[in-house]
Amino acid sequence: MTIPIALSIAGSDPSAGAGIQADLKTFSALGVYGATVITALTAQNTEQVAAIEAVSPAFVTAQIEAVCGDLAVAAVKIGMLGTRGVVEAVAIALERHALRNVVLDPVMVAGSGRELLARDAVDILRRVLVPRASIVTPNLPEAAALLGEPQAQEEAQMRTQAEKLLRVGARAVLLKGGHAGGSESVDFFVDGRVELRLPAPRVETRNTHGSGCTLSAAIAAGLAKGLPLAEAVAQAKAYVTAAIAAADRLSVGRGAGPVHHFHEWW
């Protein structure tokens, strides 16, 4: 049996709600084989990020070489990178291995407020990784940080910021509206040709840990299976919305628990 392979390049969450662990669950749920490159170790749970230990750029490179030297990687999801050196190492590896279908989730701050990307790494991420990605999936605070602008407050501002990200080098953008208010959670997809408004009912739950990781991983899974980008985005949005809606069926931890990656099977 031949199975499409997706690679997650991201940080580790030992409580398994976000990061590498969430990506592997998403890949498995969507019928894709998941490989991983760990960029950072975190000590975190549903309540807080207590500590972070960065992986060296050289060892990140060694992991990518090991995976790409053996596995036929059909799509890549990039999450937490942590440091400037790791950002540069990943950009070089993308070029060296001609990796395609790259989904960049510019993880900068944890839901608990802990910084996950060094401040001196933001500019290099914008310059060397954003243009190499097939799609960039920032939330509202991340889009504002990438553009050096205030956070968008309503849909017209979201659309404008998504288009500005195209002008600074992104090939396509999915701007996530989960941090906005209102009865709907609206995301905007733009690629210079197609524009999609992707609304979903806002679910009243605190169990959304890892939702951004899950969405970007689901897009990568769709691309690995050969879906066109806009279709992969729409299917990923539907999957993560259902995973959030089912999250309260789980009881994991005392804080913001994970989404339910296997809601269709359990």
How would you explain this protein's 3D organization?
This protein has helices at 19-29, 57-68, 84-96, 122-129, 140-147, 155-167, 211-224, 229-245, and strands at residues 5-12, 33-44, 49-54, 73-78, 102-104, 135-136, 173-175, 184-190, 195-201. It contains eight helices and nine strands. The model has no long low-confidence stretch (mean pLDDT 93). Strand 1 (5-12), helix 1 (19-29) and strand 2 (33-44) form a beta-alpha-beta unit. It has one domain: Ribokinase (UDP-N-acetylmuramoyl-L-alanine:D-glutamate ligase). By secondary structure, it is α/β, with parallel strands linked by helices. Helix 1 (19-29) packs across helix 7. The protein is globular, with a radius of gyration of 17 Å.
How are the secondary structure elements laid out?
Elements: E1 5-12, H1 19-29, E2 33-44, E3 49-54, H2 57-68, E4 73-78, H3 84-96, E5 102-104, H4 122-129, E6 135-136, H5 140-147, H6 155-167, E7 173-175, E8 184-190, E9 195-201, H7 211-224, H8 229-245
Parallel strand pairs: 1-2, 1-4, 4-5, 5-6
Antiparallel strand pairs: 2-3, 7-8, 8-9
Helix pairs in contact: 1-7, 2-3, 3-4, 5-6, 7-8
